[in-house]
Amino acid sequence: MCTECLKYNITTMASLESPLTTHVLNVAMGVPASNVTLRLYRQDPSSKTWQLLNTGITNADGRYPGLITKELFTAGVYKLHFETAQYWASLGDTSFYPYVEIVFTINDPGQKYHVPLLLSRFSYSTYRGS
């Protein structure tokens, strides 16, 4: 994890309102996708490498509260990585996509961003919500 992220523990991050949220929905079954492992990265503007900011698992509602704090949320390029093969395997299924990565740009970190993942075994989609 990035060094500035180490000063925040998961309990602290989960208790704060995140300016960036996600929601994973299993659209094939019409239910939230719980227990999906996810990771949030920010791209270093100089080296173009990805810095891990947070990792977690979606809750029963398909959400992961406390994704990032307002203090750590800065302008830049971010990536949400979802372990979809692992999720489908837990349901006794296979998936065409072993993982899904959503890369997006934050220009105004003062806004609230919602980046949901609508998921089935053979397709996925996303959009920018608020």
Explain how this protein is built.
- The chain has 130 residues and is mainly beta.
- Helices cover 13% and strands 34% of the residues.
- It is built from 3 helices and 10 strands.
- It has helices at 3-6, 10-15, 84-90; strands at residues 20-21, 24-26, 31-32, 37-43, 50-57, 76-82, 100-106, 113-114, 117-119, 124-126.
- It has a 4-stranded mixed beta sheet with strand order 3-2-9-10, with no helix packed on it. Strands 5-4-6-7 form a 4-stranded antiparallel beta sheet.
- A hairpin with a 4-residue loop joins strand 2 (24-26) and strand 3 (31-32).
- The chain is globular.
- The relative contact order is 0.24.
- Residues 3-15 have low confidence and may be disordered.
Brief summary of the model shown:
This protein is mostly beta strands. The protein is built from 3 helices and 10 strands, in the order ααββββββαββββ.
**How many E-type strands?**
10
Residues in helix, %: 10-25%
The biggest sheet, with number of strands, parallel, antiparallel or mixed sense and barrel status, is:
4 strands, mixed
The low-pLDDT segments are 3-15
**Strand residues, percent:** 25-35%
What radius of gyration results from the CA coordinates? 14 Å
Any descriptors?
globular; four-stranded antiparallel beta sheet; mainly beta; disordered N terminus; single chain; four-stranded mixed beta sheet; 130 residues; 10 strands
Which secondary structure elements does this structure contain, and how are they paired or packed?
Layout: H1 3-6, H2 10-15, E1 20-21, E2 24-26, E3 31-32, E4 37-43, E5 50-57, E6 76-82, H3 84-90, E7 100-106, E8 113-114, E9 117-119, E10 124-126
Parallel strand pairs: 1-8, 2-9
Antiparallel strand pairs: 2-3, 4-5, 4-6, 6-7, 9-10
